[in-house]
Structures are given as structure tokens and as C-alpha cells.
TrEMBL record, chain B:
<comment type="function">
    <text>Catalyzes the conversion of 2 pyruvate molecules into acetolactate in the first common step of the biosynthetic pathway of the branched-amino acids such as leucine, isoleucine, and valine.</text>
</comment>
<protein>
    <recommendedName>
        <fullName>Acetolactate synthase small subunit</fullName>
        <ecNumber>2.2.1.6</ecNumber>
    </recommendedName>
</protein>
<dbReference type="Pfam" id="PF22629">
    <property type="entry name" value="ACT_AHAS_ss"/>
</dbReference>
<dbReference type="InterPro" id="IPR054480">
    <property type="entry name" value="AHAS_small-like_ACT"/>
</dbReference>
<comment type="subunit">
    <text>Dimer of large and small chains.</text>
</comment>
<dbReference type="Pfam" id="PF10369">
    <property type="entry name" value="ALS_ss_C"/>
</dbReference>
<comment type="similarity">
    <text>Belongs to the acetolactate synthase small subunit family.</text>
</comment>
<dbReference type="InterPro" id="IPR027271">
    <property type="entry name" value="Acetolactate_synth/TF_NikR_C"/>
</dbReference>
<comment type="pathway">
    <text>Amino-acid biosynthesis; L-valine biosynthesis; L-valine from pyruvate: step 1/4.</text>
</comment>
<dbReference type="InterPro" id="IPR019455">
    <property type="entry name" value="Acetolactate_synth_ssu_C"/>
</dbReference>
<dbReference type="InterPro" id="IPR002912">
    <property type="entry name" value="ACT_dom"/>
</dbReference>
<keyword id="KW-0808">Transferase</keyword>
<keyword id="KW-0028">Amino-acid biosynthesis</keyword>
<dbReference type="InterPro" id="IPR004789">
    <property type="entry name" value="Acetalactate_synth_ssu"/>
</dbReference>
<dbReference type="InterPro" id="IPR045865">
    <property type="entry name" value="ACT-like_dom_sf"/>
</dbReference>
<dbReference type="InterPro" id="IPR039557">
    <property type="entry name" value="AHAS_ACT"/>
</dbReference>
<dbReference type="GO" id="GO:0003984">
    <property type="term" value="F:acetolactate synthase activity"/>
</dbReference>
Amino acid sequence: MAAQTQTMTAEPKAKETEQFLTGAQAIMQSLVEQGVDTIFGYPGGAIMPTYDALYDYQDRLKHILVRHEQGAGHAAQGYARMTNRAGVAMVTSGPGATNLMTPIADAMLDSTPMVCIVGQVKGNLLGTDAFQECDIIGISMPITKWNYQVVDADEIPEIIAKAFHIAEAGRPGPVLIDITRTAQTDKMTKPFHYPKEVDIISYRPRTVPKQEHVEAAAKLINAAKKPYILAGHGVLLADAQNELKEFIEKTGIPVATTLLGMSAVDADHPLYVGWPGMHGNYGANVLTNECDVLIAIGMRFDDRITGDLSTYAKQAKVIHIEIDPAEINKNVFADAPVVGDAKEALKALIPLVKQNSFPEWRAEFAKYDAIEYEKITKKDIFHDGDQIKMGEAVVMLSEKTKGEAVTVTDVGQHQMISNRYYRFKKPFSSVTSGGAGTMGFALPAAFGAKVGAPDREVVAIIGDGGFQMTLQELGTIAQSGLPVKIIILNNNFLGMVRQWQQLFFDRRYSFVELQNPDFITIAKGFGIAGHTVSDRALLSESLDTLLNSDKPYLLEIICEKEENVFPMVPAGTCVTNVILE
Amino acid sequence: MKTTYTLSIFTSNTIGLLNRITIIFTRRRLNIESLTVCETERVGVSRFTIVIRHDSREAVEKLVRQIRKVVDVLAVFGYLDHEIVFNEIALFKIATPLGGTPLNIKEINLDWNAKVVHWGLDYVVIEKNGTEQEISEFYEYIKNWEILEYLKSGRVAVGKTEKGLVEYLPEGNWEVV
């Protein structure tokens, strides 16, 4: 655009002022210069000037119109989880912005980089209870890594650059920028300049750890007899999966991944021992309380992993490699804290640790695996009951996709089963709502993941309950034409809540049974093909139909109604207290 | 046993930061005893002085790390009382009606180290600086007269270190006011 090239020149002349960008154009230009390619959004009054500017930027910025602002947020999250870059959501003020709060809270807990651009009423109307006015800065403050209200068009490039920097640097997280309508419509009073580098004096997260901390950690590792690694989301966020592989192969230390760290290690790697936590693997839980050195990498000792903290890994020396210093000693005391990025920390550690192998210690995991296989896995995947079990469906999916698909799961039983039985062969393959446990996450997040990684097979696996929370995003998927594959594991129950009611509330099934709609008709209404399968004999070909479709496809699998997910460590109890059946 | 902790928090001077800091306390159900915000000798740097009482040093350390985590926070220091020089300012509006017992100004000045800062028609305003303890002792003394109004500020505190705290701020081109 001619106007822009002119405004890029350094010294403005008075006559050129009228050719300066408007705030709305500055938003668009900033996104382009930031390298953003996709915006997930929904227009409305207070963001209309920016949508008007977007009209001229369609060749440089792909905008995806969602069906609900929550969908924009989760799609941006899914995109971010595939690309390790901030996903962008753009919505209007008031209800548009409040609808974005759930994805923001979700992204905060799961350290997902996201930049939310939110319209706000005109500057002179702030604080007057104007139409669609809402104190979104106040509301979003506890759930954003940073937020800021822009009232002056001149601030826009600098603030947007800062927003992306904060969202992606250190421990990533969501950032919200609230931009008044006036700041969008006003012209800048100076030439547009987008800062290439951002340095925030109060925010310079340490990426390279202190050498003495790395040495202290190496010393503990080299003296360990029964070391155990818990690898979290931080490994993937730092793109450190190769360093982790090198580290475990040199040290011979068994490694588990957290729910969010899932797929950071090849599931078939001989040192991979599964995942810890409430529905994690038997050995991965129990042996936490037998290891002598626990090496936590890029994870935060969530209560779903630790259970009762007063009995958690008390015998072990804990090495905590973590980029966020506030996580050190927050839940579990670290004997050797290493503050830094997982990649840098592992790079520094690898030369300092001894080549080793722990055959006897690893045999302990194998022992528990055998029990778990006998008591749980076998029953889940080979059984002759009338109805399909979730586990067998996921195992079949895993085999058919050779463990190379991206699974995007919602929250509940299907989520645990999917992550339990899908054998992830590639990093960045499990997208799920972990910390927040947001039902309704999977469908829009799967769409966002497909946008972020169009060459990968993306399969959303969703329960019948969660699916109904954001099913309107079928419209977004249909409009995009992207072949997102959707599986509903339908047990006609809010299964996880029902399981808890069965186990801990004396089978008093309080409001967990659903009268479900005909999901296939709904999908067809949106222009998405699909079918239902309830017969085991047809499961394989049904999955083939789903996977072979070059368009979005919905497969509803009718599952056993009252299946439970085991193993289970009841909430707040010791990790050795594993229920197997 | 609860201990008093004084937190000195240095931040960049941004709108909304007060909120962002106080929600860290409210979310953990921590009561703020007092809070004072002021500008510092460095341009664009604000200083929060927050007093809390807590029975767990570990919890206070966690709190400090959560505050430090806020993007616009430059530095946080936590102190015990013996590590700082601290003060508060109290104002007492005392009735001085005709025929009432006259105030002993000499005693107020010399024994209590307080002073009358405003003479009204039938009242005076007395300013008393000191620690919470000193102010509360003075309160006990002055309540022999009718207290019309009493209020006091939050604590301000400086550490007993040789260097100023701003020396510990991240490296940058700090402009001095």
C-alpha cells in the first residue's frame, strides 16, 4: 500500500500527517510485522474499525470466523500448541470479551501463548456503563500473564510487540489487549514503527541456568541409584524433546511425561514408563515414592500428579528444572533447583552426567506394568462384552494412525483413556485441557491445531457431554473445509463425574445422564458427514472411513455406559494408593 | 505465632498494577495490614510497602515469588522488623471545648514527641510519627481527651543495608529524578 510505504519513512512532515495509519490499520500492520498468519475472531461493535482495516489485509492475514468467542480462544490455543507461537484471538467488547475468559484461564494454567485483541467502547465512554462496556482489564487480570488497555493509537505498535513478547517469552501465557474504539479510529500522530526487539526491564526470564545449579543437579544425578524423570509441558514449550532424548539415553534414567508433557518422549522408547497422576500408570505413580532422585523438568507438581503432598516423594532428592522461579518450592521442595529453559538446562546437564543404566530399577517399572496390563489394560482392550470400550477404540485409532496423529482431547474419561492408550510417536501430538479441565475445549482446539499444523492428521476425541458445550464450531470447521476428524466417545453419561459418584458418593448418580441429540444429524446440518458405530465388528472400517475422509468427518462411537477409568489415585491421597479395579 | 513482614515492591509505574498485586494476596486469603505506594528516586519506578502478618515464613517466601512473577514488578524484598527502619504517621483530631481540661502541649511535644499541626476553634489536630507501638501508646494517653477523629497511614520502611534498594533493580538506564 502506497500510504504505508510513505508512513514507514523516518521524519514525518506536517502534510503527511493525514497519511499516518489509523489505530486499526496499525493493529493489522503490527500483526503482519509480527509474522502472524492467522486470526481467530468474531466481529462486533467495538472492534468494527479493526475489522474494517482487516478487509484490506485479507491477503496477508487469514481470519477465521468462529461461531462463539470461546471457540476463537480455544482455536488460538490449539494453534499455539502446534506452532509454539502465540495464537491470536480477536473479539469485541463486553460479552465478546467475557466469552473469551474461559480459554484465557485455560491458557494461563496450561502455559499456552496467546494474544487476545479485544475491542472496548470509545475512550470518552469508559466508566459510564456504556453499551457493551465491561471492565475486561479488571476481569482478566487474575487469569492473564499481562494485560493492557490502549487508549491512544500511537501506543499500538509498541504494545502489540510487547504483548507477543510477553506471551511467548519465559513461561508462556495469555495476554489481553483492550483497545478502545477511539484508539482504533484515531490516526497515529507519528509514522508507524514496529519494534523488532522488545526488552522489558522488569521481565527478563532466565533461560540459561546458573552453572552452579546445573553442577549441583548433575552431582545428585551421578550419585543416584534409582533416579526418575518427570517431563512436563516445559519440555515441549522449549522444543527440548531431542535434548531430553539425548539426556535419558546417556543416563539411562526412566522417564514419565505429565499429561501436558505427553508426546515429548516416544511412547515406545524403552525408557518411557508412562505418566504419573490421578489416572496415570501404576508404576509411574507408586515408584515416585521409591526413587532416590526425582528430576522434574518443566512441570509444576500439580495436585493431580502429587496427590497428598505430605507423602509425596519424601524419600527423594528433588531436582526441579523450571523456567518460572515462582514454581520452585511452591508445591514440592527442590533440593536442587535449576531455573532456566528446559532446552538450555538439558544442554548444560548432558556433558556433566555419567553414562549409566539402571536395569534393576527399570525392572521395577516393568513389574508394575505387568500387573497393570493384567488387571486393567487387557480388560480395556480385549474383551468380549457387547459394547465397545473406549480403550479399544483408542488403541485401534493409535494403530491405524501409527501413533503419528495429533489427538485433541476434551475433559473427562475419554481424555484419560485417550492419553492412556494412544501411543504417541511424535512430539506435539497431544493437545488437551489439563490445568483448567475445560469441557468444550477439544472441538475448537482441534480446529486450531489443524490450522497450525495442516499437514498433520488431527483427531478430536470428545465425550458426548463436552461435545455439546462447543458444537457450534462444527460450523467453523465446515466453512474452512479443513479435514478435522472428530470422534465422539458416547457413553451417554458425564462419565467421569458418574465414576466419582459411583466410587465416592455411594452410586448416587446426581444429574449425570444425558438425553443426547442425534449427533450425526447435527453434523449433517452443518454440512459435515458422519456416522455412528456401536458394533465392534464395524469399528475398524468406521475408523478407516473417518481417517480416509479428505473432508471433516464425525464418527460417533457408542461405548459401554458405565465403564470406569483405572488406575486411579483418589484425589488428595498418597500416590501409592492406586485403585486398580 | 504470627510475625510481621514488610514487603518492599518496586514496579514500573503502570495503571492497574495495584490491582494485579493485591489480587495475589486476596486469592490466598491473606489480609494486608497496610499498603503504601509512592514514587521513588528513579523515574517511572514506584515503590509499594505492604505489611502482612503471617505464621509461616515459607508461605511469605512463596508470596514474594508470586509477586516477583508479575511482569511489571522489578524487585521484591521481604523484611522482618529488625531489618528495617520504619514509621507511620497518625493524626488525632482532639476536641478542646471551652471549660474542658487543657491539653498539656509541653508534655505532648517533649514526652510524646508529637506536635499540634493545626489549631481549630474548638479542636486541635495533633500529628504523631512513630511505630505502631508508639502510636498506640500515644493513643492511650490522648484518649483522656475527646478524640473526634483518629487515623494513621500505612508503614513506610527502608532496609538497614548500606546500599539503597534501587541498586538491586535490574540493570538499565535508570534516570534519577
